[in-house]
Description:
alpha/beta; 249 residues
Amino acid sequence: MTDRLKNKVAIITGGVAGIGLGIAECYIREGANVVLTANHNVDGGKKAVAKFGDDRALFVQQDVSKEADWQKVIDATVSKFGKLDILVNNAGVGGDGKPIEDKPLADWQQVIDINLTGNFLGIKAGINAMKQTNNATGSIINVSSVAGLVGLPMAPDYSASKGGTRLLTRAVASSLARRGIKIRVNSVHPGWIDTNIVPDDAKAQILQTIPAGHLGEPKDIGEICVYLGSDESKYAIGGEFTVDGGVRA
């Protein structure tokens, strides 16, 4: 299928590599215009815009934990494309694998600031932009993790941030729906996806835990995000969409 997102405008944070780029590729295929953000991977942003075309794509450097950067992204989006239909809160960082008793407060705070506070700021900015430019309609998709459903023993900070995202999603979705605001909010929970975050020396061991027998691809997350961004998902409110090859089945 094509044109499932025709004439829609989407912001995808962390959208220039890995899962974020996979989402962007699916969105471009389906007719959306995309605003891609990243904090450090500026070269990746330039390459993505060159690939998609600057008539369809825009890159904005952003620290998602900074409220001023969110306003910068919203302003750039509206200036170029005139509105906001879809926000995909995808940007995130992993933990360092340290036991909780050895973890410095600064390391904990960095993960929470980016993964959870960044999503709060994005939701806040996205709702206000949709109210101002899109008749208070749209879709917000928060990329959580299977670690937001089941705690990972060596990633307490990551699990806490992703679990927080899961319940933040549900609370905001319910609040908007009960107030009659037609902005849907849902979460996506990827399992092991074949990106450079997965260590090569750990893949064999990881594969043994996946019933499907292989890692997922970034586009596997992109496809569920197409559904959630499209009008097909008009009745999906506060849902949790797990895409993990059967690990949580």
